[in-house]
């Protein structure tokens, strides 16, 4: 039976027919792999996700974490699933062999992890955060820190977090006040409070490795004075095993609308709840040089942002498949042209308005999945392309696209979940079907790891202006190459390509217009509109790329229904979705000041 988590057919199309990941195996980093190994890990991921993650998705939502003042309680199925996940070795799938990794391409690993996110996004958050923590330490930690903290996380023994926000500061990291006082033995003692820390307290492993942003006394004000510290829940004894409790205390759990299986915590560092070495203060270990903490943390933050986009995509995708299955099985009504009340009812999938909702979902989730996997492909190029110029270009493109990868799926795959509920009708508004939980779970994704508005400021305020617009120029040039290929085909494909080319020109012109007056406040006043329009242009490109594969296959398409569905979804996106950008670009080009001129007393 086809899975209702993800589509194997679509993953094969994207990985092999479009992105041609097999070509990566000629490169030294991936030389040990083949189509057989890729298929094997994908099959393993699907099986473990289906058998161990999906079954407790609803249970973890209904029986959310509790704290009795001493210990956090989670349903036992979460730990059991994570133990199985650790045994697969998938946490280390992309890591170097030297640290126990498989050196699997990021493109394939992203496809594998999507199965877990679709099956149970809350349980999958624990390994996602742990891998991001590990990758940061591998990039910025000392050899001793890698051996001490990263290797146990790779083995699945320790879990990791990222501790940035504080109750008074939220996303404004320049205002954090957690302090780190240097000690004579080279360690630091940390004092402060961190809020919204996912995975901040649990008993799922032997230890929790917190990566904490804090200020040393010699740090300058603002973000330039932030340093990064390893602060474990349990300090290690002489034998390297977890022992004494560090002065890190859980103040309370945040009670969430969705995503409930992931503990979300308020943590206190150094309040004297515990006394390591006989006194208060959370023991921390400086990562790298002082005052470089935010730059180092962006290594994990950018990875997490792509992971959030991938999770949003997976939730939208499984909601789409479940609403499609429901629409095929639910009989109701008759075709409008059929006036015979005694005629058999038809499945609701036959009704045009239901097709509209399913097509919209398909265009959103399959477009978003293509973008997530394309991001993985860029990361593979950055790590393994033979030419330095190609690696640098891949890095530039990925850096430019990251806000879109995070935010477009978070907005539009959430919209897909909304449509999945609508397809179910009244049944979708009950807890009898998964789609209402998928919507609640997905509603977090436009918020965490940088809100939708923050991603918009990042895209328009930094990414497209950096190095005199090099990122936007590289994106436009890359899309232009797709357009040129499409122009050679003729017919509808060329028409869609010209529509995309016009949208890219408009995006470039509007970007220049927004910054023409040199007024950042005016340029960024409608940054969110810019992000949405730019995201739609990028997803239209993803659909043109898929359409090019369909056209190249022609009558020899290995899966006629799949390829026909791709063609129709591409047509839908260009006819129903890309035109949204026209009024958005018009608004942006007008340098509208409505939001700037609105006063708080007028609300």
From TrEMBL:
All residue ranges annotated as the Acetyl-CoA dehydrogenase-like C-terminal domain in the record: 482-598
Every Acyl-CoA dehydrogenase/oxidase C-terminal domain range: 292-458
Cofactor entry: FAD
Pfam families associated with the record: Acyl-CoA_dh_1, Acyl-CoA_dh_C, Acyl-CoA_dh_M, Acyl-CoA_dh_N
Superkingdom in the source lineage: Bacteria
InterPro entries with a match to the protein in the record: Acyl-CoA_dh-like_C_dom, Acyl-CoA_Oxase/DH_mid-dom, Acyl-CoA_Oxase/DH_mid-dom_sf, AcylCo_DH-like_C, AcylCo_DH/oxidase_C, AcylCoA_DH/ox_N, AcylCoA_DH/ox_N_sf, AcylCoA_DH/oxidase_NM_dom_sf
GO MF assignments: flavin adenine dinucleotide binding; oxidoreductase activity, acting on the CH-CH group of donors
Record keyword Cytoplasm present: no
Domain Acyl-CoA oxidase/dehydrogenase middle intervals: 162-269
Segments forming domain Acyl-CoA dehydrogenase/oxidase N-terminal: 39-156
Family: Belongs to the acyl-CoA dehydrogenase family.
Protein name in UniProt: Butyryl-CoA dehydrogenase
């Amino acid at each position: 039976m086809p899975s209702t988590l993800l589509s194997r057919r679509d993953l094969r199309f994207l990985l092999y027919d479009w992105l041609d990941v097999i070509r990566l195996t000629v490169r030294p980093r991936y030389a040990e792999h083949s189509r057989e190994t890729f298929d094997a890990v994908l099959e393993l991921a699907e099986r473990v996700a289906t058998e161990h993650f999906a079954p407790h998705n609803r249970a973890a939502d209904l029986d959310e974490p509790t704290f009795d003042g001493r210990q956090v309680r989670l349903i036992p199925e979460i730990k059991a699933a994570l133990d199985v996940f650790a045994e697969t070795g998938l946490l280390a799938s992309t890591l170097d062999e030297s640290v126990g990794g498989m050196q699997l391409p990021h493109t394939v690993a992203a496809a594998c992890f999507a199965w877990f996110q679709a099956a149970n996004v809350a349980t999958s958050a624990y390994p996602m955060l742990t891998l991001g923590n590990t990758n940061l330490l591998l990039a910025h930690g000392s050899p001793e820190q890698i051996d001490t903290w990263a290797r146990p996380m790779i083995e699945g023994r320790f879990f990791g977090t990222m501790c940035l926000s504080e109750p008074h500061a939220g996303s404004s990291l320049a205002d954090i006040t957690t302090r780190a006082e240097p000690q004579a033995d080279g360690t630091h003692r940390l004092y402060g409070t961190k809020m919204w820390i996912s995975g901040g307290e649990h008993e799922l492993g032997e230890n929790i490795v917190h990566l904490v942003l804090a200020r040393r006394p010699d740090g300058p004000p603002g973000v330039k004075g932030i340093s990064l510290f390893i602060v474990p829940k349990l300090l290690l004894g002489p034998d390297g095993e977890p022992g004494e409790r560090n002065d890190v205390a859980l103040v309370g759990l945040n009670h969430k609308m969705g995503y409930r299986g992931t503990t979300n915590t308020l943590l206190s560092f150094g309040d004297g709840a515990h006394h390591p070495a006989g006194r208060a203060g959370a023991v921390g270990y400086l990562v790298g040089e002082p005052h470089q903490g935010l730059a180092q943390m962006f290594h994990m933050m950018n990875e997490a942002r792509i992971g959030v986009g991938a999770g949003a995509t997976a939730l939208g995708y499984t909601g789409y498949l479940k609403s499609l299955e429901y629409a095929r099985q639910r009989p109701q009504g008759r075709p409008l042209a059929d006036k015979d009340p005694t005629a058999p009812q038809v499945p609701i999938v036959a009704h045009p308005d239901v097709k509209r909702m399913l097509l919209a979902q398909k265009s959103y989730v399959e477009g978003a999945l293509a973008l997530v996997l394309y991001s993985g492909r860029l990361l593979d190029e950055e790590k393994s392309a033979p030419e330095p110029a190609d690696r640098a270009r891949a890095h530039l493109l990925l850096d430019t696209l990251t806000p879109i990868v995070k935010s477009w799926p978070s907005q539009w795959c959430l919209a897909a979940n909304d449509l999945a509920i609508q397809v179910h009708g009244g049944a979708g508004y009950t807890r009898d079907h998964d789609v209402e939980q998928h919507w609640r779970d997905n509603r977090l994704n436009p918020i965490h790891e940088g809100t939708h508005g923050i991603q918009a400021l990042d895209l328009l305020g930094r990414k497209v202006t950096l190095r005199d617009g090099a990122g936007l120029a590289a994106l436009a040039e890359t899309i232009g190459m797709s357009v040129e290929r499409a122009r050679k085909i003729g017919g509808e494909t060329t028409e869609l390509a010209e529509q995309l080319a016009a949208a890219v020109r408009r995006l470039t012109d509007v970007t220049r217009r927004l910054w023409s007056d040199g007024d950042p406040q005016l340029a960024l006043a409608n940054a969110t509109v810019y992000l949405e329009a730019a995201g739609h242009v990028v997803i239209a490109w993803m659909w043109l790329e898929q359409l090019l594969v369909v056209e190249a296959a022609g009558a020899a398409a290995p899966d006629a229904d799949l390829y026909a569905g791709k063609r129709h979804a591409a047509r839908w996106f260009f006819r129903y979705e890309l035109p949204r950008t026209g009024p958005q670009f018009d608004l942006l080009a007008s340098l509208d000041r409505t939001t700037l001129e609105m006063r708080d007393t007028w609300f």
